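User: quick one, sequence for these tokens?
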């Protein structure tokens, strides 16, 4: 399992550095920052998934936000 995580991180890191350099050569620093940040998040989440760590759903905060609004709309 550790070998899978290390391989995943190394491959993802190499591809990220390559693509960020392409963005920087095209004079697109904002795209490079955004891409690097998103790939960093993907690396963290992917590593946790390889380690079989239970990741909470991202829809729970949205549900708690929009559920009262939906109930108010349905009451009308």
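Assistant:
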């Amino acid at each position: 399992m550790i070998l899978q995580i290390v391989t995943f991180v190394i491959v993802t890191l190499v591809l990220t550095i390559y693509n960020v350099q392409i963005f920087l050569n095209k004079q697109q620093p904002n795209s490079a920052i955004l891409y690097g940040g998103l790939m960093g998040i993907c690396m963290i989440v992917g590593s946790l998934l390889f380690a079989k760590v239970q990741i909470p759903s991202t829809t729970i905060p949205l549900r708690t936000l929009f559920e009262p609004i939906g109930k108010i709309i349905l009451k009308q």
